[in-house]
Structures are given as structure tokens and as C-alpha cells.
Amino acid sequence: MRLKFQIRWCTGKIFLLGVVFFSTLAPAQSNVNVRVMAANLNGDSQKYKPFALRIFQGLKPDVVCIQEFNYTSTNGLEANTPAAFREMLDAAFGTNFVYFREPYTDGGDIPNGVISRYPILNSGSWTDTQVANRGFAWAQIDLPGTNDLYVVSVHLLTSSAAARGTEAANLKTLIRANFPSNAWIVVAGDFNTGSRTETPTMTTFDSYLSDSPVPVDGSGDSNTSNARYTNGPRKYPHDYVLPSFSLTNFETATVCPSHSFPNGLVFDSTVYTPLSDVPPVQFGDSTNAQHMAVMKDFLIPAGNDSGTNPPVIVTQPQSQTNAVGATITFSVGAGGSGTLACQWLFNGTNIAGATANPFVLANAQLTNNGNYSVIVTNLFGSVTSSNAVLLLTNTPPTIMTQPKSQSVLAGQTATFSVAATGTPPLNYQWFFSGTNIAGATTNPFTLANVQLTNTGNYSVVITNIAGSVTSSAAPLIVVFTNPAVFAQWNFNSITPDGSTATGTTTPSTGMGTASLVGGTTSTFATGDTTFDPAGSTDNSGWNTTTYPAQGTGNKTRGVQFTVSTTGRQNIVISWSSQSSSTGSKYGRLQYTTNGIDFVDFPNAFINGTSFTVKTNSLAAISGVNNNPNFAFRFVSEFENTAANTANTNYVPANSSSYGTAGTMRYDMVTASGSSYVAATAAALTSVAFTNGQFAFTISGSVGASYIVQTSTNLAATNWIPVLTNTSPCIFTDMDLTAPQKFYRALSQ
User: Fold this and answer.
1) What is the DSSP letter of 402?
2) CA nearest 71: which of 51, 87, 95, 90?
3) Among residues 128, 237, 245, which one has the least CA distance to residue 189?
4) Of 294, 555, 612, 711, whose CA is between 20 and 30 Å from 668?
5) Looking at the structure, do residues 142 and 289 belong to the same domain, yes or no?
6) CA 669 – CA 88 distance, rounded (Å)
């Protein structure tokens, strides 16, 4: 006869269970003790630390349903990578352990997972509809014998019993839909329940899982929440190991060298004695963990096992098709006596360091396409799997975030960026108004020292090996600044005093006066911190109020700026403004050439509740040039005259109702223009037809403004302006449908 020994230990001491059988008979039935643990042993950092690893080492579980499964290697270089988790398993369990971790990877994710001494045949993650940063991690584990173990690692929501009840109901549906009806099942983890009878959470679980017997510590306490969170003894039963009814017949005591726990064990290092039973656990280790470890043991029939079986592959690696850059995972399900070792191969050649199951290939590239297989070995032989084919395909670029429009002051820097995905490398070419920008092949694209000539639409074409995509156009608006400014109001205190509530209406540049119109009143408040050089600590804006009652006094109240344009032409007015929520949404720039009669600029302006820069060009209005009586106003306006609607009322900027106490606030009010040039008579030269277009050159006094007019006859009243520009310039007419046209150019 011969003896077969099953070796089982908790720690420190080895127990030998002898089974005698005769070689002339069939081998006797052997039993295997399987210890299942629920482990939310993470600390407040939500990364597993040495205290948790010591608890795993001391308690020696076979299967762990782990929560908040995050780990950074001891050298700090690997965080939540296969190498990091391999280091964790090797240190806390052993080199023969395998794991599955849910595919949650963002900074706030706290995924569940399963760690097993035995091969994981299948695994996955079911969606938890109540929470976004984790799911229900499940695994099918190849236990010795004829039955597999199906485990689900869970971390239920803390917010309410109702939410946990929904999770319990969803989990029950998923288990019944995906696991065999007679399967050995364990649901374990952090349930966050307030009591063992919480409804509907525990009543749902109790309908198909068993909470009896209830594990306890050496003093009979079944609660698992950390005492430091409850300001005293452990208070709540948060953590469970719940087997299916088909598995309860195999429950057995959790045995350690000096103690036996018939119901299973709640392990608290501050309670358990002696700690020499569970080296290298230290007294304060459980204090650092969020919860206590909970364990139940099962003594299962392992079948007729001589203990010398060579490896056999149960589940072959599966072929995959994915995109370049994806993370690829190959796994194999295998059985056999003793410890199984794996060596993965690529096209028949060993992959260095690829000895884990599953094998994970991060950031896969086209060079990784090919055949993957694995050799599984133990002391009694080896077996090679079939090939799993990896096919990676290129994906064309896809734009996730389009370039943004922007307004900048002339001389400042504009930056455009785009976010895109696709097979790398991604190539960028930026365009200005549909034309390639030489050298603009980076993302982001930066345009320094912008000028008015840079105003227009910017877009980008992104290409890779698989295709291309064109972004939407992002307009760039360039606002006039110092080189052409002859008067400006920034409303800041002349001597900085650190307060935005004080200021002045004296021009900060040039000469002029600022006044209130129609009965408005004013104070000083915080100005535009983006365009005002004062920044934020001493930046004042002119805050005006006391506007007309609803539906009265259209365009009669506001602010006025009187400034001579003598020696200037091509006048442009720019400013930054906002309204309070009950202030007028619409306003109008008005101007005068005689100091008395004000004329509306053709378009109204719109205020929101934060500052935006506006620009109105008066360059086409010759009367404002070289004029000592020039002035302009900003006044509040009804919607019907501002936006051509039927509503003869003021519209609030961001409220359900307009109010007379609403404010309109102004900053960086600027008048700019070029030097005035007295014009001589224009000359029209270089007349030509090119590609169906008619063009000629307007010349005269260099820098003087000229207006090109056209007519179908020579009647004095029938001339229509079509272009205003400074000499010299080119006029092009693409509308050649009329039978005849006459052209002339007049100085402004």
C-alpha cells in the first residue's frame, strides 16, 4: 500500500491528513480545504499597502474577493499594471496565484477583483447600475475535482439601503442568467449594510445564498467595520462570505494553529491572540485597513486524484481582433497536480517574462499581430495550447474635442488645440481660411503676436495610416490695441489703491470725457480681468444702473464718451461689457458727427453676465474722420429694434424679468484709428478679366480711404457703395450677371 498526504496550513504549523489505500483498488476519494476571504483591506489611500499584504500572508486564503483593488510597486514605477499586481500576488500569496481585476482604470476607480490559488477559467465584470467606478467582478475557478467554483466580488454602494437593494436584485438576476443552476457559488465582499437583516438587500441575498453560520472573531463579535470609523468597538456587519445552498454542506471550521472557528473567522489583529499563529501580521495591521477580513472554509471532494496528474488544458486561449493601442489579454484554463507554471509564446518563441495567467499585452501595435500560445507545466509533465490569433487593425482619426473660437488683443498669443483618437501616430496640419499654414503641424498650434490680418477661421486636418478627418472651423477675433489707440478708458484708479470699488472716468490714454446719459447713475466694480492689464487686484469697471422702466425710453439711457478724432481716420470703437442678470441683454453703439445728433451703428451688441469684448468699425463712415465733434454712446435697447422681433421690451441678460436696478458694466473702452491722410482723386488702373472675375486697382493718396461705387447707369443718384479701403488696393467683382456696370472711386 502507499500513503497520500494533503497538506493544509493556516500559518506556522503544517497539518498532514493521511489517507490509506491499496494499489489493487481504485484510488480513494480525497478532500481539499478551500478558504474563501472577503477583503476590503485597503487603507484610506485606496491602494494596498504592506499591512494588508501581511494579513494575506498570515491567513493564507485560497480565493479572495478583493475590493478597491489598486496597487503601486515598491519602486514606485508601476501603478496598477500587470507587473505591479504580479509583485503584489508574489509577496502576499505566492507565485502560483492568479487574479482577475475589473477594467476600471481612472484615478477615482476602485475596482473589485478575484485572486485565486486555482486556475481562473473564465472571468468578467458585470455593470453595477448604482455606481460608476466599479462593477461586480466574477470568476469561474477550476477547483480540484469535478465542480468549478463561481465567485462574485462586490462592493455595494454606501448611500442608502434602497440602492443596495437594487444592486442585490440586479446581481441575483445576473447570477441566475449566467451561472449554471446547480453551481457552487460564493458572493463575497463589502456589502456596506447597516445590519444582517437589512431590507431589501439581505432578504434578496438570503433567497439563494446562506449567511449561516455567521463568522465571528475570538470574542464572538461578527461586525467588520473598522473601530476607528465608529469611535469605539466595531459596529456594523459590512463584509460577508455568502455561499449558495449547494455549497453549504461542505462548510467546515476555519482552523489556525491554536484556535478553531466553527463558523468561520472575522480577523482583527487587535483582537486575535496569539499573533504568533499568523506571522508576519502585526498588532495594528487591521487598524490601518478599512474593514476586517472575513473567511469561511469549505472541505470539498477532490475526486480520485493520485496527485501525479500532468497538466491538461480545459479552456484554450481565444483569438482576438482589436484596434492598435488596445490592451490585449490572453488566458488559459488548465488543471493538473501541484503548482502549474505558464510560459507564453509569440509565433512559437518564448515571450520574456510572460509567465502569468492571464497574459496582458498593453498598448498593442501592428508588430504584435500573430499567434499566441502557452505551455503549461508541473512536476509531472507539460502541455501546449492551441494558437490564439491576434489581429490588430488601424483606426482612422476621430475628433473628440473641436478647436475653440477665441478673441485676443492684437499683439497677444492665440492657441488652438484639438483632441483626437486613432491609430498613432496622428499628424496635424492647421489651416487659415482653408489654406495650409506653413509649418503649423503641431497640436496645440500657437500663433504669436496676432494682428488684424490674422482674423478668420482656423481648422485642422488630422491624418494617420488609416485615413483623415477635418475639424470644424474656430473663428479668431483680433481686438484693436495700443498701436492705433488715441483714447482709452480703463476706469482704474490713477494711483493704484488695491480696490476695484474705486476708480476714475478720466481717460487712461489720450484725451476725452465720459458722462452719464438720460439719468443713469454709476459706481465702480470689478472690471474685465482678462483684457485689462491691471489683472484682478486693482481692476475697476464702470458699473451703470437706473435704466428706464420696462417698455419705456428705448435707447435713451447709458454712457457717453466725447473724444476728438482730429488727425485720425478709419475709426474703430472696442470695449468689454457685461450686464447683471436683470440688466438689459441688448445695447447699441451710437455716434455723432456734430456733437448733437446721434446715429445708430447698424448692429446692436449683446451682453451676457460675464465680460466679452466687442468691436464696431466706423471706417466706412467718412464723417467721423478728422472730426473735433465726434462722440459715441452705449445705450440700452428694446429687443424689437435690436433683434428685429415683435417684443418692444427690454430683455434681461440672464433672468426671467428685467429691472431698472439691473446694471450694464463697461471696461477698456477704446477709440483707435490710423493717421488721417487727405485724399487726392483716385485712379482706377490695371483693369482686367481673370477667371470670370473683373478686377482693377484703386490708387491715390497712400493711406487715404476711398469708396468704390457701382451703377448700371450714370445717373447721379444710382451709385451703390461696394468697397471701402485705403489706397492702394484691388477691387474684384465676382457678380457679372448684370448687362453692364460702371465703377468709380471717391475719397472719404
Assistant:
1) P
2) 87
3) 237
4) 555
5) yes
6) 64
Domain span including residue 735: 683-747
Could you tell me if 562 and 653 lie in one domain?
yes
- Per-residue pLDDT at 670: 93
- 441's CB contacts (< 8 A; 6+ apart) are 427, 428, 429, 430
The H or E element containing residue 731 is: strand 729-733
Residue 13 lies in a domain: no
Q: What percent of the chain has pLDDT over 90?
A: 62
According to the model, what pLDDT value does residue 25 have? 30
Quick one: three-class SS letters along 627-687? Answer: CCCCEEEEEECCHHHHHCCCCCCCCECCCCCCCCCCCEEEEEEEEEEEECCCCCCCEEEEE
Per-residue model confidence (pLDDT) at position 24: 28
- For the chain, the average pLDDT equals 88
Secondary structure, 3-state, 291-341: ECEEEEEEEEEEEECCCCCCCEEEECCCCEEEECCCCEEECCEEECCCCCE
CB atoms within 10 A of CB 638: 24
Amino acid in position 191: F
Residues 6+ apart with CB under 8 A from 22: 1
23 lies in a domain? Answer: no
* Max CA separation in the chain (angstroms): 129
> Under a CB-based contact definition with an 8 Å cutoff, are residues 400 and 328 in contact?
no
End residue of a domain, out of 479, 507, 524: 479
Instruction: Render pLDDT for 623-680 as a digit per residue (tens, 0 to 9).
Output: 899 999 999 999 999 999 999 999 999 999 998 899 999 999 999 999 988 888 777 7
Residue 228 has pLDDT above 90, yes or no: no
> Could you give phi then psi for residue 745, rounded to 5 degrees?
-130, 130
Share of the chain above pLDDT 70, in %: 92
Residue 306 has pLDDT above 70, yes or no: no
Look at residues 346, 362, 393 and tell me which one is the last residue of a structural domain: 393
For residue 148, what are the contacts with CB-CB under 8 A and spacing of at least 6? 121, 140, 141, 142, 183, 184
**Residue 344 scores a pLDDT above 80:** yes
Show Cβ contacts of residue 641 under 8 Å, excluding neighbours closer than 6 positions: 554, 555, 588, 604
Cβ-Cβ contacts under 8 Å for 701 (sequence gap 6 or more)? 677, 678, 679, 680, 727, 747
**Contact call for residues 476 and 455 (beta carbons, < 8 A):** yes
Going by C-alpha positions, the residue among 52, 239, 19, 32 that lies closest to residue 141 is 32
Q: Which three cell numbers stand for residue 368?
A: 504584435
Cell digits of residue 91? 509577496
* Angle value at C-alpha 688, between 686 and 692, nearest 5 degrees: 150
Q: Which three cell numbers stand for residue 41?
A: 483591506
